[in-house]
């Protein structure tokens, strides 16, 4: 009966009519038999604004912190009990609450599986991508962990948004760009050679010219891994085009820093055996 309830609540035709549930139906949608119902009701009431005034001003943050654990305990078949609470927390006025959810959304995706993730978590994830940097860093740190759980078509949609991570509220926030470079290295395994060349290459080149050396060093590794990935792909033209661009953009750069970048990238490619030596030469 739990499965049928779950199907009923997540039926596409019902998504727009959830708000028309009667109070009795609303109450039934929160019923489960894994833990004492009174305990769950107490947990769900933590999002009540009056609790923040009478119990603890950070009670919503505590609720958000515990949510993946509660979801794991109840199981995905009882996600309907937590869905409304999760959406309430995801739109909380306090950024600390949203940040807490952003850091754990990839864990929740594993618990819920691909169907519920696509329907209920992806919209929240998309909202966090446009949030404050304090919230965005949560999804950025686990970008690969979340995207690898999505279907290929859905995953490709995010290629267009990766460029937005280069823009931050504070340009001095270099750790944000360093984290982006780290994540892009992991993301190389999720995308095709063409997608890497068309979408990830421009971001990598931009990061290689960053003002902060820590960002640049990670970016050299990113470019060398990109060369390796493209070389191993069946279409060899991409790696030739990439290497020609490295020569044109950095080796022949009129600034010494650009030429130095070329040397460092060559060093990384050589040390990590990203290319056969004859190809490297």
TrEMBL record:
InterPro entries: ARM-like, ARM-type_fold, PP2A_Regulatory_Subunit_A. One of its GO terms (molecular function) is protein phosphatase regulator activity. One of its GO terms (cellular component) is cytoplasm. Keywords: Repeat. It comes from the Eukaryota. This is PP4R1 phosphatase. The gene is Ppp4r1_3.
